[in-house]
Specification:
By secondary structure, the chain is mainly α. The chain has one domain: Growth Hormone, Chain: A (Up-down Bundle). About 70% of the residues lie in helices and about 0% in strands. It is built from 19 helices and no strands. Helix 3 runs antiparallel to helix 17, helix 6 runs antiparallel to helix 7 and helix 11 (about 285-310) runs parallel beside helix 17. The longest helix has about 55 residues, at about 335-390. It is globular, with a radius of gyration of 24 Å. It comes from Lupinus albus (White lupine). One of its GO terms (biological process) is cellular response to nutrient levels. It is found in: Membrane. Pfam families: Sugar_tr.
């Protein structure tokens, strides 16, 4: 393409922050809001599912999902997400961002609704249909990752691009918050309408038949925000970078963006000679020489981060029980338990999750992605070790508040750190024709880490003494050693960050080397 940058892309790069940027954030961000809601709301209702479908007469504790069912219900959406990231990431580069963007949303709406309608009444069919639709829901959510990031980065200007992509990602925090708040509202409404004794008073009566509607309503509610943005998504034009650099139609790109930005953009006439240069393919020698280490960097850092990030579920139960936010299960009825869990999750989201994201939005274009990611991994390492080494100290009643503070800080620095930057960077450093594929590959590595974090550590964190491990689980290495291992994971994340280039304030074409691609290399 020679040295000169295509005019329409330059216009996007230097544009002042204006209305269409915010519309793009809201349209892409609502997708993320829904993703977080859908992935997260299942953890609010798993205990309830156990009480409804796995109740054993005469047992002293309420029914709970058997380990393999619990793993399937919680994990199947992650497997779906991983597959969706790879498939839709690739498709987004093949067919264009816009076409695929509507498909993922439709899939999410349909599967959200379907996951609340199970066929049959017995535990097996309910869990099977739930898992089936949660997989396809995850598949749609997976498509949202690479596409939202790519669309936002391609619409943004140079100066505030990081903040815009991070703002889309930060909508996750609000999704989690909405999930918690909605569950609180629904469970307390049902609780006041249908009162029930605690489990220890009346095991069967403690779960009212209406409780079966509660989890369904909570799961199905996720369809609403997705359906609301469907229309605006279909009205959004294809990104100029895709049209100009991949579909090679600069005139169309200029027309689309002139409409969006409400300004005149000179459309360049098609030049024949620029078609002659042969472009290198994904995973070709040339690609690996230019971007191989970058891809390794974005994949490994996201993978390592998610191991640490998703292992948080392990400690949540213990922490909430420890501070007395969630009393022992048998002292509550089913709806009370949903209410307590939702309240605890909402408080955590409010205190550490949401602020961390917005700190990233505020600082990412000032101090850069690289600094934030290094700082985040560094502090996560420090806090993990600070929790692990004196672990016995934290288990005493009087030190519990300290434990919670340290724990919240770990996740504050995950969100004001690698959790946000690993999402931003892959959308900026690869050429337009691989951008959504490479982002998909990076985020899929992350989901692989998430599975290790969520399930590997479920087994690892069990007590070393088999008799003290949770029902149905083999002996593990204990919580202390698990925390030490997570500290090591964060150190590795810190080191792999050095493979990733800084993209702060540079144009996308400069980062990906697309300006020079057309020339013969001297």
């Amino acid at each position: 393409m020679g040295k000169e940058q295509i005019e329409v892309l330059n216009a996007l790069d230097v544009a002042k922050t204006q209305w269409y940027h915010f519309t793009a954030i809201i349209i892409a961000g609502m997708g993320f809001f829904t993703d977080a809601y859908d992935l997260f709301c299942i953890s609010l209702v798993t205990k309830l599912l156990g009480r409804i479908y796995y109740h054993h007469d005469g047992a002293e504790k309420p029914g709970s999902l058997p380990p393999n069912v619990a793993a399937a219900v919680n994990g199947v959406a992650l497997v779906g997400t991983l597959s969706g990231q790879l498939f839709f990431g690739w498709l987004g580069d093949k067919l264009g961002r816009k076409k695929v963007y509507g498909m993922t949303l439709m899939l999410m709406v349909l599967c959200s609704i379907a996951s609340g309608l199970s066929f049959g009444r017995d535990p097996k069919t309910v869990m099977t249909t739930l898992c089936f639709f949660r997989f396809w829901l995850g598949f749609g959510i997976g498509g949202d990752y690479p596409l939202s990031a790519t669309i936002m980065s391609e619409y943004a200007n140079k100066k505030t691009r990081g903040a815009f992509i991070a703002a889309v990602f930060a909508m996750q925090g609000f999704g989690i918050l909405a999930g918690g708040i909605f569950a609180i509202v629904i469970s307390s409404t049902f609780k006041s309408k249908f009162s029930a004794p605690a489990y220890e008073v009346d095991p069967l009566g403690s779960t009212v038949p209406q409780a079966d509607y509660v989890w369904r309503i909570i799961l199905m509610f996720g369809a609403i925000p997705a359906a609301m943005t469907f229309y605006s998504r279909s009205k959004m034009p294809e990104t100029a970078r895709y049209t100009a650099l991949v579909a090679k139609n600069t005139e169309q790109a200029a027309k689309d963006m002139a409409k969006v930005m409400q300004m005149e953009i000179g459309a360049e006439p098609k030049r024949e000679e620029q078609e002659q240069t042969k472009q290198f393919g994904l995973f070709s020698k040339e690609f690996l020489a230019r971007h191989g280490l970058h891809l390794l960097g974005t994949c490994s850092t996201w993978f390592l981060l998610d191991i640490a990030f998703y292992s948080q579920n392990l400690f949540q139960k213990d922490i909430f029980t420890a501070i007395g936010w969630i009393p022992p299960a048998k002292t509550m009825n089913a709806l009370e338990e949903v209410y307590r869990i939702a309240r605890a999750q909402t408080l955590i989201a409010l205190c550490s999750t949401v602020p961390g994201y917005w700190f990233t939005v505020a600082f990412i274009d000032r101090i850069g992605r690289f600094a934030i990611q290094l700082m985040g991994f560094f502090f996560m390492t420090v806090f993990m070790f600070a929790l692990a080494i004196p672990y016995d100290h934290w288990t005493h009643k009087e030190n519990r508040i300290g434990f919670v503070v340290m724990y919240s800080l770990t996740f504050f620095f995950a969100n004001f750190g690698p959790n946000a930057t690993t999402f931003v960077v892959p959308a900026e450093i690869f050429p337009a024709r691989f951008r959504s594929t490479c982002h998909g590959i990076s985020s899929a590595s992350g989901k692989l880490g998430a599975m290790i974090g969520a399930f590997g550590f479920l087994y690892l964190a069990q007590n070393q003494d088999k008799t003290k491990a949770e029902a149905g689980y083999p002996a593990g290495i204990g919580v202390k050693n698990s925390l030490l291992l997570l500290g090591v994971v964060n150190i590795l994340g810190f080191l792999f960050t050095f493979l990733v280039p800084e993209s702060n304030g540079k144009s996308l074409e400069e980062m990906s080397g697309e300006n020079e691609e057309g020339e013969t290399k001297a």
